Amino acid sequence: MDVKRQSFPLCVVWCPIPVITHLFPVIGHLGICDSDGCVFDFLGPRFIHRGSLGFGDVARFWRLDPKQWVSMVHLGDAEKISSSSSSASTTTDSSGIALHDLALRRSIRFFEQHENYNLFGNNCHQFVAHAMNVGGFGGKVDWNMVHLAVLVLVKGQWTSGWAFLKTWGLFIVVATVLIVFQWQIVIGFLAAFVALAAWFAYYSFRIANPTRKVFQTLNVAVGSTREMDVTGGEGRT
């Protein structure tokens, strides 16, 4: 890891979004790095940004264990991907690093060719989740924004004390003042947060269709001539 150069090989990385994170500190912007530490994040329709996070320096990072990538990603055969972890075959560190980069490249290509952006749906978290799904990380092909938000919160490491203060400092000060003088406003903010969390959960588990996107991505990767199934689910072309 090299915080100064913003290099975080094999990591999921997170940074605050101005205003939004100051109001709701657990909400932020997500990206993923290749084995060289280069950051990739989804910032707009068919646009994958490279080299840094679009909203600022990395504040938290979670390293993905290379042994958790599933070797069947090499096959490029969507029909052989299973959401059952029992079918996953783990790999060595060296082959896992190659699989990490392969899954990321395929996801970047798919998003740049087909995916539209939606802050409240097909967003930066969904891009990272898709890369993990394409590589069958941990034997799963149903990663989504809720999984990642929770795991970054639980497993993510702060890059520095200053990164923590930038994320939580203003929120703590404002929340303290409001609790003392205008506690009704705090209840309103909590209600807004619960509503947002409920929507993201509903979108992730009921609307998004990660398996369909994995099938499409792997079929495109091997040059399948089968027409893309663009009926239903997220990210329609």
Describe what you observe in this structure.
The chain has 237 residues and is α+β, with helices and mostly antiparallel strands. The protein has one domain. It is 45% helix and 12% strand. Strands 4-3-2-1-5-6 form a six-stranded antiparallel sheet. Strand 2 (28-33) and strand 3 form a beta hairpin. The longest helix has 25 residues, at 183-207. The chain is globular and about 55 Å long. The termini are far apart. 35% of the residues are buried.
Summarize the structure.
With 237 residues, the chain is of the alpha+beta class.
List the defining traits of the structure above.
globular, 12% strand, 7 helices, 237 residues, alpha+beta, 6-stranded antiparallel sheet
- The pLDDT mean sits at 85
Question: What's the number of extended β-strand segments?
Answer: 6
Shape: globular
**What share of residues is helical?**
40-55%
Number of H- or I-type helical stretches: 7
The structural domain count equals: 1
Radius of gyration: 18 Å
Strand order of the largest sheet: 4-3-2-1-5-6
Structural class: alpha+beta
Distance between the termini: 37 Å
Poorly predicted tracts of residues: 73-90, 224-233
Q: Helices and strands, in N-to-C order?
A: EHEEEEHHHEHHH
Beta-strand portion reads 5-15%
Largest sheet: 6 strands, antiparallel
